[in-house]
Every structure is written in structure tokens, then in C-alpha cells.
Amino acid sequence: MRTIILAAAVLASLTGCAGSIDLQETTRGSGLKLQTINAKRFNLQALAPPPGSYKHLRVYIEGDGHAWATGSQPSTDPTPHSSIMVTFAIQDRAPAAYLARPCQFVSSEGCGVALWTANRFSAPAINAMNSGLDELKRQFGVEVFELVGHSGGGAVALVLAGMRSDVGQVQTIAGNIDPIYWQAQKNLTPLVAPETPLQFSAKIRLIPQRHFIGLNDTVVPPAVAYSYVGKLHGECVSVVETSANHSTGFAQSWAQQSNQPIPCKGQ
Known about the structure:
This protein is of the alpha/beta class. The protein has helices spanning 2-12, 23-26, 84-91, 123-140, 152-163, 179-186, 201-204, 222-232, 251-257; strands spanning 33-39, 42-48, 56-61, 96-99, 144-150, 167-173, 209-214, 237-242.
């Protein structure tokens, strides 16, 4: 019982106590348009760029959201209460889109508490996100994606990069990019059949990636990123340390470094 309660307490700290985001109001005047994507068993909330053809598209992937209502009670709605991914997508001057995780903002028949708690990195959840990218690619003629993920969305971004052949770069912010290590260090209830980045290490070690970590992050501590980097042996991997916590304090470092080339070994 202790591990279940601890898992809930950690995940509950991912969000504040305010209501869910009003995307219609938040994105007003931004150029991004609300769109619902049918992705296999789930509907996905997206923010899409203006109509056009974009060879390169940066896609911001949401974190785990409001997975827990209290320290011991799962939420009935995982829609995030705040989102740096929405904020950064709106502020981005390059062509950008946003993808929420399954069951955030819009519900589907496949939604259930397990999907945003123990099963949040399971094949059905990952496959839905993969279908979301397929639809953005179809609509906008995308040739190369750059994926940006916050918290659990960081793991999702890397897994998608391992599954696809059109991801040119990945960046994560407070990314839970070694979920198995994270779970063990926190003594949490095991995830159910997770798809994890290191399962795709042979491929993603060749993909340029930058990981922003918060030195004051107690939800996904810096050791999680360093565990991943140490196991990956990547060719082009950069870690950016900031004084941020899990959800705030990244804006300056993101603005300064997110558009800089990622150095590779031997360069």
C-alpha cells in the first residue's frame, strides 16, 4: 500500500490545484487552431499550425497531466491544469504543433483510469500518439519532425523517435526519460507493460537530443536524465542544467538554447 500512495503523491505534484486549461481562450490570437485527431482507439487534442506545407514541424508533447486527484485517488480526468508545452508551442516562431496525451481534453471509449496511471506508456497509448503524428504528417506534408516532450511526454517523444524514420531531433524538459529507473528510485508501483526509450537505444542513440533538467526538480530528479544518458551512449546528446523545478523555471534556458545546434561527438 505504501508504494501505491507514494506513486500517487508524486504524480499529483505534476499539476496545480486550478481548473483544467481552457485551450480556446489560451490560444486565442496565436495562430494555432484546436483540432481533434482520431488516433486508433482514442481521440487526441491537437493544436495545429495554419494551413500550409511544413517540411519541418516541431511537435510539443504533453506530460502526464492531472493523473491523480489526491495523494491516493486517481483523477477521473487527466487533462492538465497547466502546461508549459502549450505555452512554448504558442510562443514558438517556427512551425509548431501540440499533441495532448490520450484522454486529455477529449474522451474516447478506450479511456479509463489505468491508461493515465499504470498504463500511460503502454502500447495502446504510444500507438495513439504515433497515429497523431501520422495525421499531422498527412495534413501538412511534414518530412521531418522535431519532438519536444515534458515530463512523461519526454519518454513518449523518445519512444516515438525510436519507432519512426522521420524524427530528426528530440528535446525534453524535465523528461521522465528512464521510467524504469525513476520507478525504482521512487519505490513506486511498477508500470504495466511500458514502452521505454532505452528499448529503442540502438536507433535513438544516433538521433540528436537535448534534455533540459531542473536541479530543483523533486518529481523527476536530475539523476533520471543522467541514468538514461549513461546507458544510451548517444552520439549527439546534450544535457542542460537549470535552476528550475518540475514545471517552472525553464523559459529562459529554453528560449536561449532550444534552437541551437546540438553538438555531436567528434565535432
